[in-house]
Amino acid sequence: MEPDSSQDKAKRAAGVQAIATYLKNGMKIGLGSGTTSRWFIHTLGDRVKQGLEVIGAPTSNSTRDLARQLGVPLADLNDVGELDLTIDGADEIDANGRMIKGGAANLLWEKIIACASMKMVALVDESKVVSKLGKFPLPIEVIPFGWRTTEGHLKKLFSDFGWTDIPIKVRGGLQTPLITDSGHYLLDCELGEIGDPDGLALKLNQIPGVVHRPTERYDAVWCPPLRLAGSYARLRNPVLEHLGRLEGSWIIIGTSGGGGRDSEFFQAS
Prior knowledge:
Number of strands: 14
Strand order of the largest sheet: 2-1-3-6-13-12-14
Distance between the termini: 36 Å
Number of domains: 2
Low-confidence stretches: 217-249, 255-269
CATH class of the largest domain: Alpha Beta
Strand content: 15-25%
Shape: globular
CATH architecture of the largest domain: 3-Layer(aba) Sandwich
C-alpha cells in the first residue's frame, strides 16, 4: 500500500520514524485508530514480516481487524497488563501540545490504552498543527440513555464559556447514529475556537452522561522547523496531565514537501 497524497506520505513518514526510534523486540504496544494510525500499522506489519517481535493492543475493532490482516500479533489488554508504548494520532495540536482527538470515533478505548502505557507517542502531519484548537469539531462521547439531557448540559456549559448557538450534531445523523465500539454516541460540537481548552475539558468531565472528554493536555516544548521537505520535528517531554506517569513521551510531526533528503530528524532541547 502506497500513499497517494502528500498528507498521507507525511503520515507514513511519521510512522516509519516512530517505529525506527521507539520499537524494540518484545515490546507490548498500544495501536491507535484513525488514518494516521492505519499508515503506522501498515508499516508495522511490514516490520513484523521482517522479524520484529511485538504484541499489539488495539484501540478499536477496525484497528484490530487491520492488524490481524497484516499479521501483527495481538493480545487482549486484560491479558498483557501494562504496555510499553502507545502510538496514536490526533485531529489537532496547538503550540502547547494540547490536542483534539476523536475523529476516528474511538475516544474511550484510546484513553484506556493510553492509561495502560508507560509512554505515548502521538503522530500528526503538519496539517494538524494549529494556533488554537477548535476548527476541527470537538467530538464528545456520550451515553445514549438520556443523551438529549446531556446535550442540554453541553449547551449550558458552552454558553458559560461565551459561545452562543453552537451547532451540536449527532455523528451519523439522528436516524442512523454512529455507535462507538463501546456502544455510545458521538456529539460533534462546532466551537470554531477554544480559548481555554484546559478549563473546558475539566467542566466536560463533570457532566453526567459524558463518557470521555476529547481534549488531551501535553506540556510540550515546541521544536521548529516543521516544514523542511520530508522532515520530522520532535517535541520533548509532552506529559499528559491526567496521565502524569507518561513522562518521556514524544510527539512526532511528519511533514511533507518536494525534493531534498528523505528525512531529517530534529530533537527539542
